[in-house]
Amino acid sequence: MQNLIDELLELSDPEVDNKIIKSFKLKDHLCPLIFDGNESDGYTIKNDIRTKLVEISDQFIDFWGVEFFIHDIILTGSLANYNWSEYSDVDLHILVDVTELGESKVLIDIVKEFFDAKKNVWNEKHNVKIKGFDVELYVQDINEPHVSSGVYSVLNNEWVVEPSMQKESIDTQKILDKGEYFAKQIDKLINDYRQNKDISNEEETLRDKLKKFRKSGLEGGGEYSYENLTFKLLRRNGYIEKLMNLRNDVIDKKLSVS
Prior knowledge:
alpha+beta, 6-stranded mixed β-sheet
């Protein structure tokens, strides 16, 4: 495997932009394709963008096939913040109360699984873009905290959490070092799997480790924690997709009879 730091920075060619690491840097304005306004007077989402996001949300909600009260529709993530880039997605969250049908843990788990399944099928089957940005739909429980420094209510056309231009210190080398560590672990698992080794436990352990790694960063340092930025680095370079595809291959192999 090529050293990930070399792969990302392409150090042999100083003229090549380090796009991925640069994409983490804060801009001095929100994305002009999505928002009108400026830092002094404030930003509001463009009318045509808002109308289209509501239309997309309505289609997604109809796809559920069940009735749930919609508490809000929000735009969050980097496009609702100053760290937007060409890699950003339109993170559109539909807010519901998963206890609406009952408060037993079993029922809540079933409701969450239902919404996760619907979200996955929708996102896999549709390729909707807004101004070139992929639209990713989620169902968010109003009872769970959502860590984000930028949240815009599409329904109410106002900020729920207004982003700040406060500059964050980003340790790029620390992100690259940790990203290289996880990338090597993923590539090793893929190589072992191709050699017909049983990697079930190792694959599950690595997935859990990555999940806890990112969660601890979000809870401790927020969106700009090095843990969350490392996860974004791995996702933007295809390593998270590699790991998820590997998981599916392992499950398929277990369930098959040759």
